[in-house]
Amino acid sequence: SSLFVYPTKIIIKTCGTTQLLKSIRPLINLARDVNLALRACRYSRGSFIFPDSQPFPYTSFEDEVSVVEESLPKSLRHRKASVMTPCNNNNNSRAWHVFTASADVDSDESLVVVEVCMTELDRVSARSFFRRDDEERNSDSAGREMTRLSGIDGINANAFICDFAFDPCGYSMNGVDGDRYSTIHVTPEDGFSYASFECGLSLHDGGRGDIAEVLTRSIDVFRPGCVSIATTYNGEGYDHEVTKRVERVLSKKLGLKCRSRLMDEFPGSGTVVYQSFTPRR
Amino acid sequence: MAVSGFEGFEKRLELRFFHDDHNDNSITNNNPMGLRLIDFESLDQVLTEVQCTVVSAVANRSFDAYVLSE
Q1: Which residue in B1, B20, B55 is closest to A50 by CB distance?
Q2: Which among A162, A243, A229 has a CA at the least distance from the CA of A195?
Q3: Chain B interface test: which of A2, A9, A11, A12 (most B C-beta within 10 Å)
């Protein structure tokens, strides 16, 4: 799980069965103490692997949306909730859930946000995220070892990495590169292995912004059997060429075929594109 | 639920703010640090309500980044 605090933006991302939505009201109050008022809110998530283990309201997206709406000021009057379900997937097991609320229809956010969810991780790759029995080292040095062993330090060579290894397994890292953040969370246990990669970047900033290359390097670390990518364009106008380039590069470099592509518009967040990939047979 | 209590797919919340000139709180009026002025104890209290704790942290000129554990 990760928390990022910018001067006018907070991003908090938690796995497990945490009560994330309880943070909305206290964070709005703390912001008011430093003379800031809420302008926009976005809540998103994939489909839980263990939905029945989630506490209320996370057992149903409708309940989550109700809890978020009750926590927001009325000034955020442009609101939308959507469950983006791939057509080739009759149940919701691969759906992407998004709720946005905003004081303005247009987004004030310049970064494009990419949220990648990966399951069925390659077992050899996942092994990098288990603590070794003989390992006396604390979680910081074990985390650094996992970062190096897995190749995560090669995703963005400019980033300063703050990593942590959990016991007996599991890993989290935050990357810091100028005003760009990135974060990775890994549950390596076989049978329900999972990894996520997220970053905020610009489409036009000389190489660092090439989403396709960044995605290739991050997905290649885990060689997953199933990948979903949610790209939120925010104030950056939607660029269909980027979508097609991601699909071309993932196919060519990782043998991943795009099985579905959904798009939707959200107030205060612009266009969201949701793509799912599996290895070409 | 996984033996280690891990549920992979995360919940993600993003909140964006703007300077509210109606408040006469001159101390922080338009302070460029904005939300980064919030003291760690207050953030930690919010994280406790969410059932998370900070296990690692780093910052640069642009933002503060915390690794959390449930």
Answers
A1: B1
A2: A229
A3: A12
Chain segment A172-225, per-residue pLDDT in tens: 999 999 999 999 999 999 988 999 999 998 887 655 568 999 999 999 999 999
- In eight-state DSSP terms, residue A10 is E
pLDDT band at B3 (very low <50, low <70, confident <90, very high): very low
- Distance spanning both ends of chain B, measured CA to CA: 15
Half-sphere exposure of A179 (CA within 13 A, CB side): 13
Find the closest chain B residue to A52 by CA distance. Answer: B1
ipTM for the whole complex: 0.95
Between A86 and B28, the more confident residue is: A86
Residues sharing a CB contact under 8 Å with residue B37, sequence separation 6 or more, in sequence order: A34, B28, B31
CA A146, A148, A151, A155 dihedral sign is positive
Identity of residue B47:
L
* Amino acid, single-letter form, for residue A68: V
Nearest by CB to residue B15, choosing from A27, A45, A181, is: A27
